[in-house]
Amino acid sequence: MARTRSNDTPGSLSTYNGSVSAGEPSLVEKLEAGVARIGIIGLGYVGLPLAIEYADRGFECIGFDVDDKRVGQINQGENYIEDIDDDRIQRAVAEDRLWATTEDDPAAAVDVFFICVPTPVSDHKEPDSSYIESAARMIAGHLRPGQLIIGRSTTFPETTENLVRPILEEAGEEKGLELGQDYFLGYSPERIDPGNETYTTANTPVVGSGVTEACAERVHLALGRVMSDVRMVSNPKVAEMEKLLENVFRSVNIALVNELAQLCERMDEVSIWEVIDAAATKPFGYMPFYPGPGLGGHCIPIDPHYLSWLAEKYDFETSFITLSARVNEDMPYHVCQSVVEAIANQPVSLGDATVLVLGVAFKANVQDTRRSPARAIIRLLDEKGVGTLHYHDPHVSDFSVEDGSGRPVETNPVGLTAETLQECDVAVIATGHDAFDADLIAENAPAIVDARNALSEVDDPDLREKIRLLGEG
Fold first, then answer.
1. SS3 of 179, please?
2. Whole-number Å distance between alpha carbons of 151 and 129
3. Which member of 53, 55, 308, 350 lies 3.0 to 4.6 Å from 92 by CB, making a disulfide possible if both were Cys?
4. CA-CA distance, 241 to 217, in Å (whole number)?
5. CA 216 to CA 222: how far, in whole Å?
6. Which of 61, 299, 336, 424 is catalytic?
7. How many other CB atoms are there within 10 angstroms of residue 232's CB atom?
8. Is 299 a catalytic residue?
């Protein structure tokens, strides 16, 4: 099963022999010896960090991705994930422990697959499982004895057993293979927090599951090779629902403070930020959540819709969860309205106004722009007729926005200087990066909408006069 290349260029492949000889070690023996070959399907924020953890421990990792550019970067030892040190990628590639491909054939050589593909929602807020299905069919096409398949993508309960399992079993029957005996299937949801320097793929506790006891044993062993704390649950449905609970918990609590923030704006001398800080002094029964311009990233904006869709199948309505999602999705509209009102107080018409959006990543101190609230804010300001839109983000070098019809919205990147701040009519802080100079912004922007309380340290009364803080009456 050794890999051969047609030349010395990473990713330049010839043929693979995926057959298993009678005397070959079992999957358990390979995992225990550290010689199991790991296949990562999807090399994004979930897949690549996982691949690096296995490569760092001596496993050979094959990355599968449909993105030619991403595959080329990996094979050249180039890193595109902020949470991974560049030298880890370079070392893994140089030592032949990590390589990537857009081809399916190498899947026959893989012992353990991790499915780390996107799971978006459709325009009708329904789960799009096509990426998971495609990954499962690719694996099924190369299914052989001794393989373990573990789902990592965030998804709705029953995906593993009602979508992935039938695809594998159909292929297994054709080859005379039995699930739980010849090959194995489980699910272990990812717990990635971009920009978190404390909790990583390796030291964050994870939940695992298997469709049979034998599957669960191998899932636990495979995860335990790189993760320090693996907690097993009774079946994949529990693990899938657990992941949704994690994210919906945040969605619901953020919606609560977002709604209270809008109420506080209508009241005199009440700031939601001071209210939250005061509540946080209670040492039990409370944890602080903070308002903002909307939710971003892959999971939290999407997962409530997964649960709502699933609930309909059981004649149940998740009214509380659905309402919280709606509150959060409305926040970019609320911020946009605040910007329009700030423009109205300037000696400029809407069509001649310049708005500078500060921060287009979905959270502070990362480059990840997936479902960023800034994207919605820019689109809405364009629809309102704002004349000129600029953005600045020290972590994001390339950013684009489309309107509802797919037309590119003209948005120009600029530096954060006294001049660019003075030239705008309103600056809106959509992401609270630590790199932002609060005094520079407060002293030079004519008007500011602060959706992140990023200027909390600015206490000059004259400067505070021109700051519209989300949630402050």
1. strand
2. 12
3. 55
4. 21
5. 10
6. 299
7. 18
8. yes
